[in-house]
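Section 5: illustrative case.
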C-alpha cells in the first residue's frame, strides 16, 4: 500500500514472496517463447531461389528478438530472486523483532 503523503510503501513478506512467484512465472513464459522461436526458424530453402536474401534478413531480425527475449527472461529471473530474498529478509526481521519484544 502506498501512502501518497510521504511515498511510504507498506508490504508484507508474503506479498513480496508471492510477487516474486508471479515474476518467475512471467520469466518461465519468456523462456518458453524463446524455445518456441528457435523451433520455428526456417532454413534458406524455405524461401526458394528468388528470395535468397529473405532468410538472412529474417534470421538477423529473429536473432535480435531472441536475444531480447533471453535478456528479458534473465532479468526477470534475477528480479524474482531479489524480490523473494527481500521478502525472506523481511520475514526474518519480523521474527527477530517479535523475539526481542517477547512475543
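Designed sequence:
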Amino acid at each position: 500500500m502506498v501512502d501518497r503523503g510521504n511515498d511510504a510503501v507498506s508490504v508484507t513478506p508474503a506479498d513480496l514472496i508471492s510477487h516474486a512467484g508471479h515474476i518467475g512465472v512471467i520469466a518461465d513464459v519468456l523462456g518458453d517463447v524463446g524455445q518456441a522461436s528457435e523451433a520455428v526458424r526456417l532454413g534458406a530453402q524455405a524461401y526458394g531461389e528468388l528470395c535468397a536474401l529473405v532468410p538472412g534478413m529474417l534470421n538477423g531480425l529473429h536473432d535480435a528478438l531472441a536475444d531480447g527475449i533471453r535478456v528479458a527472461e534473465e532479468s526477470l529471473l534475477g528480479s524474482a530472486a531479489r524480490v523473494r530474498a527481500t521478502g525472506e529478509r523481511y520475514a526474518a526481521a519480523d521474527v527477530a523483532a517479535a523475539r526481542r519484544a517477547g512475543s
